[in-house]
Amino acid sequence: MQYQEYTQSENNFEECTKCSICTVFCPVLQVNPLFPGPKQAGPDGERLRLKDPGFFDATLKYCLNCKRCEVACPSGVNVADIIQSARLHYDQTPPKLRDRILACTDLMGKMARPFAPLINGVASKELPRTLIETALKVDHRRIFPKYGSRSFEAWLRRRQKEQAAFPLQVAYFHGCYVNYNYPQLGKDLVKVLNALGVGVQLLDKEKCCGIAMIVNGMRKEAVKNATHNVSIIRKALEKEGVKVITTSSTCTLTLREEYPALLDVDNADVHDSILIASRYIFECLEKGATLKFRPDYHKRIAYHEPCHMERMGWGIFSERLLRMIPGVEYMPLDSNCCGIAGTYGFKKENYDNSQAIGAALFDQIRAVNPDIVACDCETCKWQIEMSTGYSVLNPISILAEALDTN
Amino acid sequence: MRYDAVIIGGGLAGLTAGISLQKAGKNTAIVSTGQNALYFFSGCFDSIREPSPEIQALFSEAGIRLHYSPGVRLMPMGTFRESALALEDVSIFPNPQFGKKVLIINFMAYHDFFSSFLAEGLEKQGMECRIRFLNLGDLAQPDLGPNQMRAVQIARKMDDVWEKVVQEVRVLLKDEDTVILPQVFGLKDATIPEKIRQGIPARVVFAGTLPPSVPGIRTQMLLKKRYEVLGGTYLMGDRVTGAHVYEDVVQSVVTKQLDRHYLEADNYILASGSFFSKGLISNPFKIYEPLFELDMDYNMDRNTWYDPSFSNHQPYLKFGVKTDANLCPSRGGVPLKNLYVIGSILGETHPELGSGAGLAIRSALKAAQLITNQT
Questions:
Q1: Residue B28 burial (CB < 10 Å; 0-12/13-18/19+)?
Q2: Is domain A4-90 given the CATH code 1.10.1060.10 in the classification?
Q3: Do A17 and B238 touch (CB under 8 A)?
Q4: Contact B147/A37, CB-based, under 8 Å?
Q5: Chain B partners of A19 at a C-beta cutoff of 8 Å?
Q6: A40/B147 Cβ within 8 A
Q7: Tens digits of residue pLDDT in B218-237
Q8: What homologous superfamily does CATH list for B2-40+218-373?
Q9: Judging by beta carbons within 10 Å of its beta carbon (0-12, 13-18, 19+), is residue A348 exposed, middle or buried?
Q10: CA of A286 to nearest chain B CA: how many angstroms apart?
Q11: pLDDT class for A115, splitting at 50, 70, 90?
């Protein structure tokens, strides 16, 4: 209808009916009185900012970008997008050194890898952590992810020929975490996909998805990464039947939704071909492929659906895969934010709120007392492992562990 | 993914239908675009006037206790409305003169509970009212900031400190026979309102606040939990964007998040709500149902849609999807055999089913029954 063009703004803030349902679901509003809440920071504030950018409020930095407001909104308003766009457009203060360091996850990974044992050792000690807190305002109680000494890319590159022999092919956007911190998850994905007759290829030099840059005010750098990633994904998709697979829920959401919504990087032609591995595997199985599981695998598994997985509406795929493993006793956890939200929980000023947000989830995990917590997000993994002591595995790693390869 | 039934809309109607079908052994999925009208629920099923053991049992199995006592209930602004069936924490009185002296409790700096309007309304009924304010900061630390002074945030505090409120009220209570408290109790634990009643030596009445409604959210959480315990799949935050219909049969529906991964089912239930939830859409030229483009029951002349007097009954509220006696709609005059329409999207096209929460439940039970009875 013609007239709709003129009555609907780009980020649809005027669709907000002021029902305030989002304020029930915002985890920050429950613990931090300084945050205006999603309704005020989002659609209410946007109306004012459009009149005068002087209405921009620095407390918008307390938004976790968890998107729970968007999941709850009955009117389809992209509340968190409005807040994050406002931060990118109106915030004139340059990002702090600390935020830049936290945001450049792939640069940090590249620099840290050769010295991995040394850095892992230093980062686990109390004194250096206290010094880091004083110098950079990164909370000393926060445990850093360990760095691997060999990158996942190097591991897979040596297996390129063997992978190319499989009849079906996917390109894998592994993300910084798999490449520098936890190559095992990538290896687990290769194992599961190979069992389905699918070979795994690298993209042509992927860069960090850029979410940490987006939320730390580094728009220019984020746009650069996004443009690069969309172009290499586009190139990979030229080959017939290939999909781009991810194992991190946040990378997936960023590649699919944040690029156009927050960075104005057009990904419409590749959007539908970027899938998280659990959805891709579920669809393979639905089409008739089969996986054989070890008869001796028995685990009680509690599944935590990351906020960004919930925003994509894809938790159901991970759930179905876990339930499909014969020896798994599946226990759903209530929908809750773990509180870390990537770099957010590392910052000294957010640490206490971050832990308060996660408390309900941690309590439930302790009450359920599972063998393993399953979760599709690496930063949730750090947060849950640090705060509860339970070990957390990506559903893909659980599939790999339960797989009967004989 | 294939189901016995896919339900579009996860509010009171969708959840009721889902629970009933799961209980009958069907495998169902609910697609819910955000939250729903339960967040504004008064706690009363005003249009249900007769005893309804079936509805009471359905709710009781979900941990929601209802009581049936025909009479009137107190509205948030101090007026009264006829009611019969309500959540246990909502009081229904035989007549508006339910007490002689009333103590109304409010919280300092809380603007969503209208204690002075309540007092004015009750004084008209000949009651003597006294209003007292509690300081939240004295009851629970850390104190709430001005952005957090909403029913749900207060209710989360009250889940832990409701006993302190009981103590405070006991101290404040003089010779009043009734105490009125805002509806901010029992978000996590539905038994708290009853415990508060037992702890205060006067009649305790919980009166409505501005939304979000605490009893409504509790009801939504318990119904959703019940649905999931029965094995239902609740797809939260997704949206049905289209449907594949072949002749008179719905083949599958498409959702925004699952895109090419269609949801297929033998039967479909449309519980997408009214104008607020975009189950119905109006523009300057027409009112329509956006998913299936179902035939509508409404007056085309836009001048007849609304009454210029805001407080009068608005004609557009009558408009809804046209269905037969079995709640089956039609499209371009062709009936759709495996689609059922329930809840507020029906408008007032089925007055025999009531309105609001009553319509949602009655139409949902009817559709679930029809689907279960298919051979």
A1: buried
A2: yes
A3: no
A4: yes
A5: 39-40, 211-212
A6: yes
A7: 999 999 999 999 999 999 99
A8: FAD/NAD(P)-binding domain (3.50.50.60)
A9: middle
A10: 8
A11: confident
